[in-house]
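Our consortium's second objective concerns turning raw sequence data into structural hypotheses that experimental partners can test. To show how far this objective has progressed, the report includes one record in full. It was chosen at random from the queue rather than selected for favorable results. The single chain below, 452 residues long, was entered without modification.
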Amino acid sequence: MAQNDFSKGKASQNILSMALPMTLAQLINILYNIVDRVYLGRLEGVGRLAITGLGLCLPVISVLIGFANLCGMGGGPLCSIHRGRGENEEAENVMGNSFTLLLLFGGILTVGGLLFRRPILYLFGASDATFPYADDYLSIYLCGTLFVMIGLGMNPFINAQGFGRTGMMTVALGAVVNLVLDPIFIFLFHMGVRGAALATVISQGCSAVWVLRFLTGPRAILHLRREAMVLRWERVKRILALGSSGFVMALTNSLVQILCNATLQQTGGDLYVGVMTVINSVREVITMPVSGITNGCQPVLGYNYGAGLHKRFREGICFTTAVTMAYSIGVWALVMAIPHLLIHIFNSEEELLLAGVPAFRVYFSAFFCMAFQFIGQSVFVGLNRSKSAVFFSLLRKAFIVAPLTILLPMLGWGVDGVFWAEPISNVVGGLACFITMIATVYFPLGRRPDEA
């Protein structure tokens, strides 16, 4: 199928054909949790406690997403590389092994999460006032873990085949179902937090069914076959090694969320845990286009790298960098100008606004530098350089944000220290990742002739 051959046409057009639907898909995807937070923040009398309780569940959700990324972001780029080499059978074997891993991880995480959710939530910063809301949400959400694994983990295999619009429909379907069911369950049936979780689980189930129907249907280039699901250790190692970048990013995000919530609970109480929940919600929205663009470039970069088309690979890096940086600078200026309006979307309590506006301006002060991290990571993953991808995932979150989150409040910065850790890591970690990618990938490939 010519439209799925990334060696034809302009590299920028190939990337846009993937990135635009993937970006829209990413933006739609955040509606799963963002809509929940908007509705719960409006619950009369308990809105701030409900949204704070939901925020305490985010580290657990990040872990689930991390395991989905471990297989999806590991297997998807490998599929693109094998497709570029004309090795479609091995590409299908990679997809089948990834599916089996997702089922195994999903089962283990469901049982473990349900058994230990109470100590986990208190460890993550819950108080006696917020625990009931967090427990109500998480106990239902965990029952849909397999849906999360399949929907998120297998969708990259649709995108890897060049079907960006179909991949977009995976999350669009779930988001629409969630939008419809949320107000019905939360307000009409008076289920509150439990209604939000139930709506999310049902919507994720719809996405999972959509993915499986496509990958086993006639339109797919690569098909999910039973014989390809038998695990082979060498293949599993390659999937997990490449996916470890996305996995580490999700786990370190979870670690940082835990440290932030726990530290803010000690230094500022439930109010500042609520502020961080709103900040995380806005961050998810504004980083999704960056994530969509950089994820969209990975199938194109992987295909052309596998085909030995180094000039097109470099063109793809240049185009992705230009678009991503232009967007990041624009949205940074917007967030710095209207933080109060963004907070109003979730909750209008005066106390939350007074604490939230200065925290917003500190946290997002160097947001545009985060784009450097996304660009560098996507290139390393596209080239199957898992060690570099993992190192820079750890550098920004585990080696910079996490220690600063603990140290700065101890040095007298108080709650502000928690919020300052993020912009410092954006500058140091983001630039380190991008400069290393330019020095070790972009320039060296420029000295190699195309192999095809």
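The partners drew two points from this record. The mean pLDDT is 86. The two ends are 19 Å apart (CA to CA). Both points have been shared with the crystallography group to help prioritize constructs.
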